[in-house]
Amino acid sequence: MSPATLIILIILLLISTFIVRNFIQKKGSCKDCDCSCPIKDEIRKSKLEDK
């Protein structure tokens, strides 16, 4: 493997790791905003039923 290929591979791995960590920390993109949608309504209802 050439050094350039190795550098590109390392950069891609770092970027993908950051994206996955960010997605997991946010627990999906459905909780990113306070807007109303059917999926969020179902999530809120299920949380209320669990309590």
Mind explaining what this structure looks like?
The chain has 51 residues and is an all-alpha fold. It is built from two helices and no strands. 73% of the residues lie in helices and 0% in strands. It is rod-shaped, with a radius of gyration of 18 Å.
Topology:
Layout: H1 3-26, H2 38-50
For this entry, give a set of tags:
single chain, mainly alpha, rod-shaped
Shape: rod-shaped
Radius of gyration: 18 Å
Counting helices, strands and paired strands, the structural category is mainly alpha
**SS field, number of helical segments:** 2
Q: How far do the termini sit from each other?
A: 55 Å
Report the uncertain regions.
none
- Please summarize the sheet with the most strands: none
What is the helix fraction of residues, given as a range? over 70%
The share of residues in extended strands comes to under 5%
Question: H/E order of the elements?
Answer: HH
